[in-house]
C-alpha cells in the first residue's frame, strides 16, 4: 500500500508542474506572434521585396499625363485626378505627386496608389507612387507583356511617367549609369486616406 501511495504522490506532484492544453496553446501562440509583432513594428508596416540580380538595369519613359486619358472611376483615374490637382513636373520632365515619381510596374510590387521606394545598387533611393500596373498577359494593346519583374525578362522594372524631355532610359536623367534596382520597399496606399 505504501508503494502505491508514493507512486500516486509522485504523479500528483508532476501534474502540478505541467501545462494544461489551453496554457500550451497560449504559450505557443505567443511565441509565434512575438516575431510577427516585432517585424511589423521594426518595418513599420513596410513590405520589402528583393529583386533578383540581372533585373532593373533599364527604365522607360511612358505617358505625359497632360495628354493621357484613363478609365473614369479606376484607381489610376483617382491618382491622375490627384496629380492634376496637386502634382508637379520637375525641370527634367518627371511627373511627381507628393515629391514621388509616378511610375508603372508589375503587381509584384504593389497596386495603383501604393507608395514604393526602389533602392538602387549604389544606395540611391527612388521614391515612387504606382500610377499604373504593367500588363502581365498578352493583350491586343500589349503583345510583349511583362513577366513577374518587368519587361524584357525583368530588365525594365520601372516605366516613368513624364514628358518627352526624358531620355529613352530615364535613369540617365537621374544621374544613374550602371546602377540597377536591388530592392523595393512598399508602404501605404495614397488612396486609403
Average pLDDT, to the nearest integer? 83
Rg, Å, rounded: 26 Å
Q: Rough shape?
A: globular
- Return the structural class: alpha+beta
N to C succession of SSEs? HHEEHEEEEEHEE
**Oligomer type:** single chain
Portion in strands: 25-35%
Low-confidence stretches: 39-43
Descriptive report:
- The chain is α+β, with helices and mostly antiparallel strands.
- The longest helix is centred in the first third of the chain and has 23 residues.
- It is globular and about 70 Å long.
- About 3% of the residues have low confidence.
List its traits.
193 residues, 9-stranded mixed sheet, 4 helices, 9 strands, 28% helix, globular
Per-chain topology:
Layout: H1 2-17, H2 21-43, E1 47-50, E2 58-61, H3 75-86, E3 88-89, E4 95-97, E5 100-105, E6 114-120, E7 125-133, H4 151-154, E8 156-160, E9 181-189
Short description:
The protein is of the alpha+beta class and 193 residues long. It contains four helices and nine strands, in the order H-H-E-E-H-E-E-E-E-E-H-E-E.
